[in-house]
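Cross-check.
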Amino acid sequence: MPFIVESKRRKPETLAALYPQALILDVTSQGMQPWIKFSPFYPHSNIPVPFSPEIVAASVEGIWQGLKVFEKMDIDVSKFAVTTMKNIKRSTRTSGAVLGHRAGVGGSALLSYGDARRQIYVPSYQWVLDHHLQAEIQQLKIEGQTRTVVLLDYETNGDLDNLSKPLSHAALIISLALPPDNL
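Predicted model, tokenized:
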């Protein structure tokens, strides 16, 4: 059975009509337990920060936002410690344009958006899938054996190379943890 990513912004009745027998799960920070744990904002804790030996963060989003570099502001390691799932994002309104992501807390190199996706975001999210979400992934695999499973996300872009839209973490769940050969 397939796994599908859909927009959380779609009306529940529309989704129910499109996928009448499907299990529909919200994997965003607004989801219910245990599926909320798939949110990049979820504070799993002790997630290794790429390119930063001995430094850990509470969430994937904390790593992503913390290593972001703006015109008027460098990295913000305080984002690594946020466990409330709130006030993690950093704004271009106050900090200026995003210049890139720093390759680690002590690094001098700035990674482009695409490189940061591949070298910071995806490895951090993969680490969470591998170390914190194995039981939930097994549940998804079991559900997917008998019916379609729809994963709701605010973003639906599953193409790592499409830099015009934010990347869907729900699509990463499917590509990294639920590949067809593992079902």
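The chain is about 30% helix and 15% strand. The first strand starts at residue 3 and ends at 7. Passed to J.P. for a second look.
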